[in-house]
């Protein structure tokens, strides 16, 4: 793994097998689901097992691929689906495969089939303790709302799964992930530009009209469409209108004539997930030497119109530059202070303009103060029964609300109370561990893992997706696991080689 995240030419021997396995692992899941749901679950689970047992070095790469491209295959084959429930179920196969790969990898680790250092053992113990705490709150919440509790368990556990899968794989095998991540980044950029310039063509080749029809049915029946129209004041007339949003989804830019832009949803079929994917791609491509390609992707980031993703790119770029100019320690101190100032300022401005994400966070904060122990996963949050009946005008006037919505950190505080500090603290600790590697080596990828994770944690105050969407925190923790695992496997080598 010496060259796994160092600039190197794309090698067909590294790239093609990983891409082939990745496509095969998820491409036909919608057809199998339509034929027999039970058979689909068994087959996808066996595929996850086979990857870890037969081609373990490909596991993190395959996880990244299916996170980004599963919904593209779901969209193309959505004509085989008959109900919204079936569509939602098949979208969960990316989690199923990743969870199975994690579980098999963990089993091999517990059975000591793969030897690791005491440092790996220590990190794994803290990660498993974090999962145990989250599971405890899941059991508490499941007594009140089993479905919502299960969804939030998945949302919180998924980034930990990706981190541990990558950590154990990188600590065990020499893997080459740079060619694969560059290829994925190029595919994301190509998809983004095709959608941006040829929207009707994109919707046709991806069977998007059928895919979004299911989403419209679900949104109408659940009440989320009505709630969104009440929040934004936008009433869509056709499918294309559903892709129109104010720039950065904020009223602050309406005076500049940016009240309506056509957002890019990408192969994720989600602008926020795609935005974080493009942000990661820009930073990764720049770090490994494909800098013109990184610059070419910046317009896509703008048209995704995702504040958190844009802040991620700006923050990491500034942190890289400051480290070069002033050194690692000063940069870390300034970065942490900057993140605190950013959070306070954004909360203050959000309360002034009635931002729903900030109001949702304040609801979580007030709920934490009322019950510091927590209520259990699924209690409150966007999945709660009262979400669609929220009186947003009253919430804006009060600057808070009963419950926590639109804010991952707010939801964690409301549902887990003081226990929320366990997963948040674990994520921050892993970011700081990656920073220590960066401080001693200067390798930009390690800086991306460290500073990227930090800023996404703060973005979680203002977005649910920042922590709960796999292309955001999950992807960065996957990278963090790779750089830490590689360092622990090769720490006897030249320190600048560790984490490449």
From TrEMBL:
Keyword Transmembrane on entry: yes
Superkingdom of source: Bacteria
Transmembrane segments: 12-31, 93-111, 123-140, 152-173, 180-198, 274-294, 300-320, 332-353, 411-431, 443-462, 468-488
Keywords: Membrane, Transmembrane, Transmembrane helix
Protein name: O-antigen ligase-like membrane protein
The species this protein was found in: Bradyrhizobium macuxiense
């Amino acid at each position: 793994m010496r060259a796994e995240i160092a600039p190197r030419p794309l090698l067909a021997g590294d790239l093609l097998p990983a891409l082939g396995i990745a496509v095969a692992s998820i491409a036909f899941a919608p057809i199998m689901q339509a034929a027999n749901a039970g058979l689909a679950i068994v087959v996808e689970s066996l595929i996850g097992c086979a990857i870890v047992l037969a081609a373990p070095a490909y596991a993190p790469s395959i996880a990244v691929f299916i996170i980004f491209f599963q919904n593209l295959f779901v969209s193309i084959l959505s004509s085989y689906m008959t109900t919204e429930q079936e569509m939602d179920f098949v979208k969960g196969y990316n989690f199923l495969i990743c969870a199975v790969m994690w579980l098999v990898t963990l089993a091999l680790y517990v059975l000591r089939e793969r030897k690791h250092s005491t440092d790996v053992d220590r990190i794994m113990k803290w990660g498993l303790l974090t999962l145990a705490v989250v599971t405890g709150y899941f059991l508490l919440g499941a007594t009140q709302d089993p479905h919502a509790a299960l969804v939030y368990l998945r949302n919180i556990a998924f980034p930990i799964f990706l981190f541990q899968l990558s950590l154990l794989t990188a600590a065990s095998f020499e893997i080459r992930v740079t060619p694969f991540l560059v290829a994925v980044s190029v595919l994301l950029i190509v998809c983004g530009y095709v959608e941006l310039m040829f929207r009707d063509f994109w919707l046709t080749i991806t069977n998007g009209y059928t895919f979004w029809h299911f989403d419209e049915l679900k949104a109408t029946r659940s009440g989320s469409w009505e709630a969104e129209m009440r929040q934004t004041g936008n009433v869509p007339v056709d499918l294309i209108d559903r892709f129109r949003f104010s720039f950065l989804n904020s009223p602050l830019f309406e005076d500049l004539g940016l009240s309506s832009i056509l957002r890019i949803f990408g192969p994720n079929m989600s602008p926020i997930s795609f935005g974080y994917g493009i942000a990661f791609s820009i930073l990764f491509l720049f770090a490994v030497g494909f800098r013109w390609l990184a610059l070419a992707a910046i317009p896509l980031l703008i048209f995704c119109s995702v504040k958190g993703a844009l802040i991620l790119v700006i923050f990491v770029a500034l942190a890289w530059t400051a480290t070069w100019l002033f050194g690692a320690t000063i940069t870390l101190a300034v970065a942490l202070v900057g993140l605190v100032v950013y959070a306070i300022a954004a909360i203050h401005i959000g309360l002034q303009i009635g931002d729903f994400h900030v109001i949702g966070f304040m609801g979580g904060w007030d709920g934490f103060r009322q019950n510091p122990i927590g209520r259990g996963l699924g209690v409150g949050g966007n999945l709660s029964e009262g979400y669609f009946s929220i009186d947003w005008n009253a919430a804006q006037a009060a600057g808070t609300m009963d419950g926590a919505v639109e804010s991952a950190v707010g939801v964690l505080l409301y549902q887990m109370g003081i226990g929320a500090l366990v997963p948040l603290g674990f994520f921050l600790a892993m970011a700081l561990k990656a920073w220590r590697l960066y401080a001693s080596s200067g390798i930009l990828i390690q800086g991306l893992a460290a500073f990227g994770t930090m800023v996404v944690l703060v973005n979680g105050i203002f977005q649910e997706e920042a922590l709960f969407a796999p292309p955001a925190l999950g992807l960065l923790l996957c990278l963090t696991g790779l750089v830490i695992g590689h360092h622990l496997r090769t720490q006897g080598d030249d320190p600048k080689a560790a984490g490449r």
